[in-house]
Design goal:
By secondary structure, the chain is mostly helical. Helix content is 68%, strand content 2%. The protein contains 22 helices and four strands. It has helices at residues 2-6, 12-41, 55-64, 88-116, 118-134, 136-142, 144-158, 161-172, 178-184, 187-206, 208-229, 242-252, 265-269, 272-301, 307-338, 343-349, 351-365, 372-385, 393-400, 405-416, 419-430, 437-461; strands at residues 46-47, 50-51, 256-259, 493-496. The longest helix is centred in the middle third of the chain and has 32 residues, at 307-338.
Length: 508
């Protein structure tokens, strides 16, 4: 691969985009594995001493007086390995523990990436998370607190990934190709889509312990490719052609400097535009993490699918989100090249697809009852439409302050990722006494409300215009000329100033 790339048959920025995609892929593999592993690790709920049958499966039996092959009507517990007596509240804590750590490191992750190089930061954090994933079965056998601690530490490692990837996007992506690079950050969607069916098959074939081992092994192998193929900037890449390097640097602007200045925290946190982005991102992650942590539970314990079918069906919404995400990214690039409308109009216009429509579809879902087909279709279309987030909350930090895009995304992700442990707690509390359709209708209504309200607030207060506090202060002293590889030295932050053409700051 290295030889092919060195012959310029494959542009280096294309290789970087692919590696960004796979970085998100393996990150999400470790993030979402507990959602389906936990179903196999815990003792099934019982009613009157017997195994509890999912509500929709009961209705199916009542209507047709026979069992459907699509449902799990089990009188004995499948042998997937050791089972633990963890109730719904404890399961919620286990599912949310990843996001406790993830939330803590989102902001430091952006700072680390900008100051010391995103390549090294991503590699070391992913490597540590891979080893922690391998230790999952050992921690669970010791005590549930061991598993919670392991997941918390995995989240600490995972929190730095996306801010660092945004640093790489700001350094590698020409403006007219930014939609494709941001679309590459949807690799996590494919990670979810592949992980759940894969782990469902592994669990049914080998047991749940192997789902941790195989997942962790894949991550460790990926780390080798990352360190060999990725550099922090075009200037730092050892085999990039001079033509491609010149094209990227010129497209990003006339001046690329190193600075040692701190983020303008006061200006950032007093910015109404940035708080609108935070709320928009919060609404997006609410819907995403809700389906990530609770979707398999709904399909398995309410609609009644077995573990293999649960993994496949729970992955369908993420397949739709991946496909629509790339489509919306291409639409954004098309608009950018032709200067059809301003960036702000695009960001606010596509809120209809990324937030409003997903919320409305969750409301309609409450009308389907136990109709399995329509339930799966509406969940799939809801998250699929949210793929438009490639043109809304996922790009807005690049609009507001490209010099600090990684840190801005880290702050927004820190606040938004609290939904990763809020939503499991809400689901656990609402379904503590009974896990049926009425309870899930409440859960879906809450999700719809968050989606829609957050989208409308951004439409009122949001913006895509570059903010004054993006500019590097004149008293910040630049370092020596020439850009070293900041992944392997004590480099400072690389900042990118926009070009002289002001119109570049007002188009996608």
């Amino acid at each position: 691969m290295a030889n092919i790339c060195s012959q310029d048959l494959i542009p280096k920025r294309f290789v970087i985009a692919i590696m960004l995609f796979t970085a998100c892929f393996v990150s999400y593999m470790m993030r979402v594995n507990m959602s389906i592993n936990l179903i196999a690790m815990v003792e099934p709920a019982k009613t009157g001493g017997n195994l509890s049958i999912p509500e929709c499966a009961v209705k199916k039996i009542e209507n047709i007086s026979s069992e459907s092959e699509h449902y799990q009507h089990q009188t004995s517990i499948p042998d997937y390995g050791a089972r633990y007596p963890w109730d719904s509240s404890l399961q919620s804590l286990i599912l949310g523990s990843y996001f406790w750590g993830y939330t803590i490191t989102c902001i430091p992750g952006g700072v680390l990436g900008e100051r010391f190089g995103p390549t090294r930061t991503v590699m070391l954090s992913t490597l540590a998370a891979g080893f922690l994933t391998l230790l999952g079965p050992l921690m669970a056998s010791w005590h549930y607190m061991g598993l919670i601690v392991a997941r918390f530490l995995t989240g600490l490692c995972g929190g730095v990934i996306y801010p660092c990837l945004h640093c790489l996007v700001s350094r590698w992506a020409p403006p007219e190709e930014k939609g494709k690079f941001i679309g590459a950050l949807l690799g996590g969607t494919l990670g979810t889509m592949v992980t759940w069916p894969l782990l469902g098959f592994i669990i049914e074939s080998l047991g749940w312990s192997w789902s941790f081992f195989i997942n962790g092994g894949i991550v460790l192998v990926w780390c080798v490719f990352w360190i060999l193929l990725v550099a922090d900037s075009p200037e730092a890449h050892s085999t990039i052609s001079e033509e491609e390097k010149l094209y990227i640097t010129k497209s990003l602007g006339d001046t690329i400097k190193r600075t040692k200045g701190l983020l303008p925290y006061k200006d950032i946190f007093l910015s109404v535009r940035f708080w609108a982005l935070i709320l928009l991102h919060f609404g997006n992650l609410w819907g995403l993490y809700f389906l990530m942590t609770a979707g398999p539970n709904f399909l398995s314990t309410v609609l009644g699918f077995n573990l293999g079918h649960t993994g496949i069906l729970a992955a369908l919404p993420y397949l739709a989100r991946l496909i629509f995400g790339f489509i919306f990214g291409l639409i954004g690039d098309f608009i950018r090249k032709r200067n059809i409308v301003s960036t702000t109009v695009v960001r606010k216009g596509f809120i209809l697809f990324s937030h409003i429509i997903p919320g409305v579809l969750l409301l309609i879902l409450n009308l389907t009852g136990c109709d399995v087909n329509w339930s799966v279709i509406l969940l799939t279309m809801s998250l699929g439409s949210n793929g438009a987030s490639t043109l809304t909350n996922l790009q807005n930090s690049q609009d507001l302050a490209p010099n600090y895009a990684g840190s801005l995304y880290g702050i927004a992700n820190c606040i938004g990722s609290t939904t990763g442990f809020i939503t499991p707690l809400i689901v656990g509390q609402i379904t503590a006494n009974h896990n049926g359709l009425d309870e899930w209708h409440i859960i879906f209504c809450i999700g719809a409300l968050v989606y829609i309200v957050c989208g409308l607030v951004f439409c009122i207060f949001g913006s895509a215009e570059i903010q004054p506090w993006n500019q590097v202060k004149q008293n910040e002293e630049p370092e020596k000329d020439g850009i070293q590889n900041p992944a392997f030295d004590n480099a400072s932050e690389i900042t990118v100033k926009m070009g002289e053409n002001d119109d570049e700051n007002t188009k996608v």
